[in-house]
C-alpha cells in the first residue's frame, strides 16, 4: 500500500477520536456520524490517496468537523464486502408501512363501490402493531457514466446525504432475495418500493461508491426473485411481498390466488426502472425480458388506461387506477412496455382551482390525491414534458410564493410516518381545501400528525430549479439529516422530526444526486 506511515497514523487517530466521542452515546451530529464510521470500519480498507489536509485549529465546530472529515474520508474508503447487520424496526415498536395504497375494508370501501366512477388505489402494507465506467473524480467520488454527459461535482453536504442514504440501502438489503425493506427493518415491500430499490442500487454505482460487480450481483438476485416469485392469479405481481422470503404477503397471500390483487400504478413505476436496468446494464436485458414476457401487463390495461385489482371478501374488484400526476407517471412504464395507454393522458377529466392566487389543475374524479411526488419523479427520471397535465413549474412557484408570504418552508408530498396513521398523502389541494393531509383511506388526520416538509421532495426540487429558494430547500434537507444515520423523512407541523426511515426517501435522495451528477440530465435515456 503506497501510503506514508504518518498518514496512516493520522487516519487511525481520527477514527479512534470519533469512536470515543460516539461511545458517550451523545445525540450530537458528530456522535451520529461517528457511529457510522465505527460500524463501517471493519468492512473497508484504505486506498491510495493524497495526504489529508492539516486541520488549522484544534477546536473546530462539530458541524464543520463532520462535513470536512467525511468529505475527505469518503474517497479513502473502498467497499470490500456488503454489510451484514441485524436489522430491527427503528420506531413505533416496529410499526411500518410501504409506498403502495389500497382501498381499505369497511365503510369507505362500500362507499367507493357505489360510486359511478370506480377508482382503485394502491395497497398499504398493514401496520404490524395493528456498463461502461469512467474514472472522473467528483469531489472525491468517482462517477460511473454510459454517455458523454458532463459530470457535475457533489458538494460536501451532498456527500453526507449520499453516505446516509447508502447506509439505509446497506442496512435493509436482503441477501437471499435481493429485495430491500420498505421501511427500516420491516421486511415488506411493494412493486413501487422495488422500483425505488432498483433506482437506489443503480444510483450508488453511478455515484461511484459501489463497484459495478456488486451492483451486478444485487440486480441479478433481485431479478431472479421477480422471475420466481408467485404471481397473483398467475398473471401479475401481488400488491406486497416479504423481502426475506420473496413470497406474497398480506390478505389472501396463502390462498390459491397468491394475494389480494395488483396495483397498476406500482407496476408502472417498476417497469420504468426495469427499462433503466436495460439501458444501464445491457447484459441484464435478457433477464429483464424473461420477466416481462412472463408477466401479463396487458391485463392491467382497459380502454387505454390503467386498471388494478383488489380481492376482498365481497369478491374481485377491477377498477381504474390513478389520478392526475400519478396516472401519467405510471403510464410511462406501460408505454415503455409497448402498450397503448393514450387515455391516461386525456386531460378532459381536469378542472382548475385557485390556490394562493396560483391556478392549478386538479382531477375532478373521486379521491384525487395531489402531491408533488409524481411530477418530481417524472422530471428527474423521464424529463419535463410539454403536456397538458404537467404542472411542476406552477407547483414550485406556489411553494416558493408561500414561503415569501409566510416565511414558512412547506413541501407537500406523500410520505411514510412514525406516527399514526403511518402513511399520509400531504395534498396541495384535496376536495375543496388547500394544504390538506389525509390518510391512505382519505380520512383527515390530527393536525400534529401532519407532515409539512418532505426531505425527498425538497431535495428533488432543489435539483430541478436554480434560485435562492431552491438553495434554502437543499440547506433545510441537509440540516434535517445531520444527526441521523439514514436520511429521515421530513418534519411534522409541530416541528418534530419524522423518522420513518424508508426506501422511497433514501432512494430518491440518491437518484436526485445522480441527476445532478449527470449535469441535470434525466435518468431514462
Strand order, sheet with most strands: 7-8-9
Rg for CA atoms: 23 Å
Q: Structural class of the helix and strand makeup?
A: alpha+beta
Overall average pLDDT? 80
Largest sheet, strands/sense/barrel:
3 strands, antiparallel
Low-confidence stretches: 1-120, 128-147
The overall strand count is: 17
What portion of the residues fall into strands of 2 or more residues? 5-15%
Number of helices: 15
> In angstroms, what separates the terminal alpha carbons?
40 Å
Bin the helical content. Answer: 25-40%
Q: So what's the overall shape?
A: globular
Structure description:
The strands form seven sheets. A three-stranded antiparallel sheet has the order 7-8-9, with no helix packed on it. Strands 12-13-14 form a three-stranded antiparallel sheet, with no helix packed on it. A three-stranded antiparallel sheet has the order 15-16-17. Helices cover 38% and strands 13% of the residues. Residues 1-120 and 128-147 have low confidence and may be disordered. The protein is an alpha+beta fold. Residues 165-518 form the DUF3131 domain. This is DUF3131 domain-containing protein. Keywords: Signal. It comes from Shewanella surugensis. Residues 1-23 form the signal peptide.
Amino acid at each position: 500500500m503506497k501510503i506514508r506511515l504518518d498518514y496512516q497514523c493520522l487516519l487511525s487517530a481520527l477514527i479512534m477520536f470519533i469512536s470515543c466521542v460516539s461511545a458517550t452515546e451523545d445525540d450530537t451530529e458528530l456522535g451520529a456520524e461517528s457511529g457510522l464510521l465505527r460500524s463501517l470500519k471493519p468492512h473497508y480498507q484504505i486506498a491510495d490517496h493524497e495526504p489529508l489536509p492539516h486541520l488549522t485549529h484544534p477546536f473546530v465546530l462539530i458541524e464543520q468537523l463532520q462535513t470536512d472529515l467525511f468529505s475527505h474520508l469518503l474517497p479513502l474508503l473502498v467497499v470490500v464486502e456488503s454489510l451484514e447487520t441485524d436489522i430491527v424496526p427503528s420506531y413505533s415498536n416496529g410499526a411500518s408501512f410501504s409506498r403502495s395504497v389500497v382501498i381499505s375494508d369497511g365503510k369507505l370501501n362500500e362507499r367507493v363501490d357505489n360510486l359511478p366512477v370506480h377508482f382503485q388505489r394502491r395497497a398499504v402494507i398493514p401496520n404490524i402493531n395493528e456498463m461502461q465506467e469512467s474514472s472522473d473524480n467528483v469531489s472525491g467520488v468517482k462517477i460511473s457514466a454510459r454517455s458523454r454527459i458532463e459530470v457535475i461535482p457533489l458538494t460536501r453536504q451532498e456527500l453526507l446525504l449520499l453516505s446516509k442514504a447508502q447506509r439505509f440501502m446497506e442496512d435493509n438489503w436482503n441477501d437471499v432475495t435481493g429485495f430491500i425493506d420498505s421501511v427500516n427493518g420491516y421486511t415488506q415491500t411493494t412493486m413501487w418500493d422495488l422500483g425505488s430499490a432498483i433506482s437506489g442500487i443503480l444510483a450508488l454505482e453511478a455515484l461511484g461508491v459501489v463497484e459495478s460487480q456488486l451492483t451486478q450481483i444485487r440486480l441479478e438476485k433481485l431479478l431472479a426473485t421477480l422471475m420466481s416469485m408467485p404471481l397473483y392469479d398467475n398473471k401479475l405481481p401481488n400488491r406486497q411481498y416479504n423481502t426475506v422470503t420473496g413470497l406474497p404477503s398480506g390478505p389472501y397471500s396463502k390462498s390459491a390466488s397468491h394475494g389480494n390483487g395488483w396495483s397498476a400504478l406500482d407496476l408502472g413505476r417498476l417497469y420504468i426502472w426495469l427499462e433503466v436496468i436495460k439501458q444501464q446494464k445491457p447484459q441484464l436485458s435478457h433477464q429483464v425480458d424473461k420477466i416481462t414476457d412472463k408477466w401479463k401487463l396487458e391485463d392491467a390495461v382497459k380502454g387505454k388506461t390503467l386498471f388494478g385489482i383488489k380481492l376482498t371478501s365481497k369478491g374481485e374488484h377491477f377498477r381504474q387506477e390513478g389520478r392526475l400526476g400519478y396516472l401519467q407517471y405510471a403510464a410511462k412504464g406501460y408505454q415503455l412496455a409497448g402498450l397503448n395507454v393514450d387515455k391516461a393522458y386525456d386531460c378532459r377529466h381536469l378542472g382548475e382551482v385557485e390556490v394562493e392566487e396560483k391556478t392549478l389543475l386538479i382531477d375532478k374524479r373521486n379521491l384525487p390525491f395531489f402531491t408533488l411526488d409524481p411530477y418530481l419523479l417524472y422530471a428527474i427520471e423521464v424529463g419535463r414534458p410539454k403536456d397538458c397535465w404537467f404542472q411542476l413549474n406552477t407547483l414550485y412557484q406556489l411553494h416558493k410564493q408561500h414561503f415569501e408570504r409566510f416565511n414558512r418552508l412547506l413541501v407537500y408530498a406523500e410520505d411514510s410516518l412514525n406516527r399514526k396513521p403511518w402513511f399520509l398523502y400531504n395534498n396541495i389541494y384535496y376536495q375543496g381545501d388547500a394544504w390538506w393531509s389525509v390518510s391512505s383511506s382519505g380520512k383527515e388526520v390530527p393536525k400534529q400528525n401532519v407532515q409539512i416538509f418532505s426531505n425527498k421532495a425538497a431535495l428533488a426540487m432543489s435539483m430541478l430549479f436554480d434560485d435562492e429558494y431552491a438553495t434554502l430547500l437543499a440547506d433545510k434537507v441537509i440540516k434535517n439529516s445531520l444527526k441521523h444515520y439514514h436520511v429521515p423523512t421530513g418534519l411534522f407541523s409541530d416541528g418534530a422530526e419524522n423518522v420513518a426511515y424508508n426506501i422511497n426517501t433514501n432512494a430518491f435522495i440518491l437518484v436526485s444526486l445522480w441527476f445532478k451528477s449527470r449535469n441535470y440530465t434525466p435518468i431514462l435515456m
